[in-house]
Amino acid sequence: MSGATAGETAISVRNLGKCYQLYDKPIHRMLQSLIGDRHRFYREFWALRDVGFEVRRGETLGIVGRNGAGKSTLLQLIAGTLKPSEGKATTHGRVAALLELGSGFNPEFTGRQNVYLNASILGLTRNEIDARIDDILAYAEIGDFVDQPTRNYSTGMVMRLAFAVVTHVDADILIVDEALAVGDAFFMQKCMRYLRDFKKRGTMLFVSHDGGAVTSLCDRAIWLERGCVQRIGEARVVMDAYLEASLIERQGGVGARNGAKTRWQPRKIERHINPRQELLDRSILRNDILLFPFKPDVESFGEYKARVTHVAFCDESRQAVAMVLAGEQVTLEIELLAEQDMDNVIVGFYIKDRLGQLLFGDNTVLSHTDDFAVSAGETFQARFRFEMPRLGAADYFVTVGVAEGTQEQHVIQHWLHEALRITASGGGYATGLVGVPMHEITLERINDES
């Protein structure tokens, strides 16, 4: 990222790299120390190389990639717990890092002693820790174990204690490396609430395999592959690209983007607006949901044995509609063309928000107990009928895909990231990510006749 001044920049990374020396035999390490640079007994492994970016103050940057891509190495270099082989990482402000689980903890120390140790490493004075120790221990929720050696703790308890310390050191920059992968659901929710609150006032680097967490929490994201930056940009866009690459790799590295021109043409459908019920038309709670036409030329990938040729929301008469209200019955129709013979076809969809968070979706697997085979040149259709949920005022996207195989093992044939756009307005009140239309809501007194 360019253009940020020193005052705006919280983290600056320039040409950063980390190289490790790998020895095939222990004796080679000893020989290397004796002979020096006259002969090389090791192989170089660059865990990270030529990485550069900047993070503005107040920005949250996600870091994604497969295991071994260099994510943790990058965070350790920025946190200062590793020395770079080349380049430089500079931070401006107090840094609190939650890296490897319980790093900085002495297993022979009690939880209380480790709080003092870890908090002092993170820059707090003894008096500051004394003033906050009760709040830290209350946040960790480990009860009487606080005065037991941490070697007796479960991994979840260690994570609770480490996270509790981090939340009380008044950091300007927070570095989190998969810390939420361990722990119960309630504590994970507590951690996410803290991270969302910290996001409002501080700068954060966040590593996670949870694409939903990255897109909902992060402003931008970096995708690392084999120690190098593969892509950097808006979190939703980067996660789409990372997901696409992961799916292609899972199916043997076969797949292409957007494919070659084919003989099919998108079907032209005359669109109309459904009649509105008079009561809902006048209601301030009306949730209008505009449905935009199918775009066949959006970003897509796959092996292209089959292609999606048309996608539309339809009413009960199977007419494509341009607008619906929350709570109405709609049918999502997906038309497809088989380019080659396929033994078993699966068609599915997701609806996701503008950040890329998956709100809901389904596929055809459970609706067909037998394999659904198609022949080359055959057209076919999947239909999903459901009640449109309440959506907050924003833009949403429909992702559709067709695959061959089973639910557990399948190969993507055509995947369209944003086949349809949806724009919701109104709503009248907050519904969360999606609101479930209520069939009935009652409020009544219960008389005790006993």
UniProtKB/TrEMBL annotation:
It comes from Dyella lipolytica. Coiled coil: none annotated. Belongs to the ABC transporter superfamily. GO terms for molecular function: ATP binding. This is ABC transporter ATP-binding protein. Keywords: ATP-binding, Nucleotide-binding, Transport. Residues 22-251 form the ABC transporter domain. It comes from the Bacteria.
